Amino acid sequence: MLSFLLNVLWFVLGGLVMGLGWWLAGLLCAITIVGLPWARACFVIGGFSFLPFGQEAISRRELTGQTDLGTGPLGLAGNVIWFLVAGWWLAIGHLTSALACFISIIGIPFGIQHIKLALIALAPIGLQVVPKR
What we know:
By secondary structure, the chain is mainly α. The protein is 71% helix and 8% strand. Helix 1 runs antiparallel to helix 2 and helix 4 packs antiparallel against helix 5.
């Protein structure tokens, strides 16, 4: 119940804007055929950005115990390219939103979540969104 309430407040007080930012980045990546791997990551993290409470993003390597395309050397190269092209823009958006949330005591949990999403924005390839345990 608490996660639901926090997600509703999050969505109304800024989660919508950042989620749409992620989806816009995903749409721009999807327009170019080369950007399809990044587009998938953008849409997954964008959905997470809409409703982050009660979920977490973890490495697929930790989840499955195996290395795959996104968690190996190609995933690292993809994350470097992502960081240079779009990752830092989304991270700046999340950090700006976090600063705005930290103004009030009620906004502190939302600010912390924005900081977590800013870190995810720097390297989203190879992450999977799962319910918190």
